[in-house]
C-alpha cells in the first residue's frame, strides 16, 4: 500500500483537528449556558472549565507535539489546588468521605492512555521499583481484608479507591517524567507558594476565610487561644485546614531550596530566595509545631544527603552557607517571637487530647490486632473504645497516622505501610549515586528530604489521608523515581563493548 501524499495527510489532519475544535467549542458553549443559571460558586467553576477548554483548543491548534508536556505540567500545577467534587459524599474526617474527582484527575485521565501507548511502543517504561509495587499491592490486600469487617464498608471502599488513585498517579508521573520538566516544575511550585501564602495573609489580616470557593473551604478561620490570653489566627491559604497548608510548605521548601542551588541566573536565584522567605512566613503563620519541627528535620536530611552525594562542595557549599546565614538571620528577627510564644503559651489541653485519642487507638488495636476495626472507620466505631467520652468534646480521628493505620487495618497494615515508605526512601537513597545530572540529583535530594519531614510530621497528625495533600505526596513519589531514572548514566558504547554485526571477514 502506497503512503498518502503529504497534501492528503495534511488535509486529513486538518479535518480531524476541525472536528476536535468543533466538539470542544460546542462543549464550551453548553458550559457557558449552564453557568448563566448557576449560583456564584458553580458559575465560577464552570467559567474556569470554559477557560480550560479554550486553552486546550489553543494547544491543539498552536502547540503540536507538546500535548503530553502541557498535560503533565498542568497535572503538577493542579494537584495542590483543591478543585474537586465528592460523589456519594458522607460527612466524615480521616479519609475519603466519598469518591473524589478533582480537576487534576482530568489531566491524569488524559495522560494514562498516552503512557499506555508509549509503553506499547517501547518509549515509556515503569519506573516504580518492583519492591514498592509488591508492598503496595500487599497493603491494598490488607485494606480489602479490613474492609470486609468494617461497620461502614462504603467508607472503607472510598479509602481503597484513594489508595489505588495514589498508586496510579505515582506510576504515571514517574513513567512520563522528563528532564525538561525540572525548571517548569520549580516555577509552578514557586507560583503556588506565592498564591497560597497571599490568601493566607489576606485571611490573617481580615480574619475571614477568603478563598475562591474551591474544595470544602472552612466557614471561618481557625483561631488558636494561648495561655497568655492572646488569640492567633491560623490561615490555610486555598486549602481546607492550616495543617494541610503547613505540610504543603513542609514538602515544598526543600524543593525550592534545590531549585535555588541549581539556578543559573541571578534573577532566578533572587526570585527563589524570595519565595523561600515567603514560604517560611506562611509556615510560621500556620502555628503548626509539628510542621516546624519536621521542616527542621527535612532541612537536616537535605544537607546530609547533599553532603554524602558530593553536591555540597566548593562554590556550591559557599553559596549554601551564605543562603543559610541570610535566611537564618531573617527567620530569627522576624519569626522568633511568634514561634517562642506558640511553644511556651499553648493550652496544655490541646496536647492532652491527642494522647487520649492515642489511647483509644491502642484499645482498637488490642481488640482487633489482625484486621483492625475497619479501614476509614475510626470515627464510626470510636464511641465503643472511648470510656472517657473524648468524642463528646473532640470527635476526631487519632492524630497519629501510624496508630490510625494499625487501628483501622490492623498491625499487618502498619508493618506494610512502614515497609513501603522505607522501601521508597531507601531505594531513592541508593539510586542517587547513579544520577549523573547534578540538577536532577538536587531535585531527588529535595524530594527525599521533603518526604522524610512529612513522614515525621505524621507522628502527630493524619494529613496523609486528607486531600489534596494525599495526592500531592504521591505525585512527589512519582517525581522522585522519574527524576532518578531520567538522571541515570546511560551506558556508553565503545569499540570494546559495541555488539558485533558480522560473522567474519567475508560475511
Secondary structure blueprint with pairings:
Blueprint: H1 6-35, H2 40-62, H3 67-78, E1 84-87, E2 99-102, H4 103-120, H5 130-148, H6 153-176, H7 182-206, E3 222-225, E4 231-234, H8 242-262, H9 266-285, H10 289-308, H11 315-344, H12 348-367, H13 378-381, H14 401-409, H15 411-432, H16 438-457, H17 469-486
> In what order do the strands lie side by side in the largest sheet?
1-2
Low-confidence stretches: 7-14, 491-507
**Order of helix and strand elements from N to C terminus:** HHHEEHHHHEEHHHHHHHHHH
Report the principal-axis shape.
Answer: globular
What is the CA-CA span between the terminal residues? 33 Å
The largest sheet is: 2 strands, antiparallel
Look at the structure and give the mean pLDDT: 83
Based on helices, strands and strand pairing, what is the structural class?
Answer: mainly alpha
Strand fraction: under 5%
* Number of helices in the DSSP assignment: 17
- Over the alpha carbons, how many angstroms does the gyration radius reach? 25 Å
Roughly how much helix do the residues carry, as a percent range? 55-70%
Query: What is the subunit organization of this protein?
Result: single chain
Q: What does the model show?
A:
The protein is mostly helical and 507 residues long. Helices cover 66% and strands 3% of the residues. The protein contains 17 helices and four strands. The protein has helices spanning 6-35, 40-62, 67-78, 103-120, 130-148, 153-176, 182-206, 242-262, 266-285, 289-308, 315-344, 348-367, 378-381, 401-409, 411-432, 438-457, 469-486; strands at residues 84-87, 99-102, 222-225, 231-234. The chain has a two-stranded antiparallel ribbon. Mean pLDDT is 83; it is low at 7-14 and 491-507.
Amino acid at each position: 500500500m502506497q503512503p498518502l501524499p503529504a497534501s492528503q495527510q495534511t488535509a486529513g489532519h486538518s479535518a480531524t483537528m476541525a472536528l476536535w475544535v468543533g466538539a470542544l467549542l460546542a462543549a464550551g458553549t453548553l458550559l457557558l449556558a449552564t453557568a448563566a443559571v448557576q449560583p456564584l460558586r458553580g458559575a465560577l467553576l464552570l467559567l474556569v472549565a470554559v477557560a480550560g477548554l479554550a486553552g486546550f483548543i489553543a494547544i491543539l491548534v498552536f502547540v503540536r507535539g507538546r500535548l503530553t508536556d502541557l498535560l503533565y505540567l498542568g497535572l503538577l500545577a493542579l494537584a495542590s489546588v483543591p478543585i474537586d467534587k465528592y460523589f456519594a459524599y458522607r460527612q466524615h474526617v480521616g479519609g475519603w468521605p466519598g469518591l473524589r474527582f478533582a480537576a487534576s484527575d482530568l489531566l491524569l485521565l488524559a495522560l494514562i492512555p498516552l503512557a499506555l501507548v508509549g509503553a506499547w511502543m517501547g518509549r515509556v517504561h515503569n519506573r516504580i521499583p518492583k519492591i514498592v509495587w509488591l508492598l503496595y499491592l500487599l497493603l491494598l490486600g490488607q485494606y480489602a481484608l479490613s474492609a470486609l469487617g468494617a461497620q461502614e464498608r462504603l467508607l472503607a471502599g472510598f479509602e481503597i479507591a484513594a489508595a489505588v488513585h495514589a498508586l496510579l498517579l505515582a506510576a504515571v508521573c514517574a513513567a512520563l517524567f522528563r528532564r525538561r520538566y525540572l525548571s517548569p516544575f520549580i516555577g509552578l511550585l514557586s507560583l503556588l507558594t506565592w498564591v497560597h501564602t497571599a490568601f493566607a495573609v489576606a485571611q490573617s489580616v481580615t480574619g475571614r476565610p477568603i478563598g475562591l470557593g474551591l474544595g470544602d473551604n472552612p466557614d471561618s478561620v481557625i483561631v488558636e487561644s494561648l495561655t497568655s490570653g492572646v488569640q492567633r489566627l491560623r490561615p490555610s491559604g486555598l486549602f481546607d485546614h492550616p495543617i494541610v497548608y503547613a505540610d504543603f510548605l513542609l514538602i515544598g521548601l526543600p524543593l525550592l531550596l534545590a531549585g535555588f542551588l541549581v539556578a543559573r541566573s541571578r534573577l532566578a536565584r533572587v526570585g527563589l530566595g524570595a519565595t523561600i522567605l515567603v514560604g517560611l512566613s506562611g509556615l510560621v503563620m500556620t502555628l503548626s509545631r509539628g510542621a516546624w519541627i519536621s521542616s527542621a528535620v527535612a532541612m537536616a536530611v537535605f544537607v546530609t544527603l547533599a553532603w554524602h552525594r558530593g553536591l555540597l562542595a566548593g562554590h556550591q557549599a559557599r553559596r549554601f552557607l551564605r543562603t543559610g546565614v541570610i535566611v537564618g538571620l531573617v527567620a530569627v528577627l522576624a519569626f522568633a517571637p511568634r514561634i517562642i510564644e506558640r511553644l511556651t503559651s499553648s493550652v496544655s489541653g490541646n496536647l492532652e487530647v491527642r494522647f487520649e485519642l492515642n489511647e483509644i487507638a491502642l484499645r482498637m488495636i488490642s481488640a482487633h490486632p489482625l484486621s483492625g476495626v475497619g479501614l476509614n472507620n475510626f470515627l464510626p466505631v470510636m464511641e465503643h473504645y472511648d470510656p472517657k467520652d473524648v468524642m463528646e468534646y473532640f470527635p476526631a480521628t487519632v492524630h497519629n497516622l501510624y496508630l490510625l493505620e494499625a487501628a483501622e487495618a490492623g498491625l499487618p497494615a502498619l508493618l506494610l505501610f512502614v515497609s513501603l515508605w522505607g522501601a521508597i526512601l531507601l531505594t531513592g537513597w541508593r539510586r542517587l549515586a547513579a544520577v549523573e545530572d547534578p540538577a536532577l540529583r538536587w531535585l531527588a535530594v529535595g524530594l527525599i528530604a521533603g518526604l522524610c519531614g512529612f513522614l515525621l510530621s505524621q507522628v502527630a497528625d493524619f494529613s496523609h489521608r486528607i486531600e489534596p495533600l494525599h495526592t500531592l505526596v504521591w505525585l512527589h513519589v512519582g517525581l522522585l523515581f522519574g527524576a532518578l531514572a531520567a538522571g541515570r548514566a546511560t551506558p556508553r558504547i565503545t569499540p570494546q563493548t559495541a555488539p558485533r554485526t558480522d560473522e567474519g571477514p567475508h560475511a
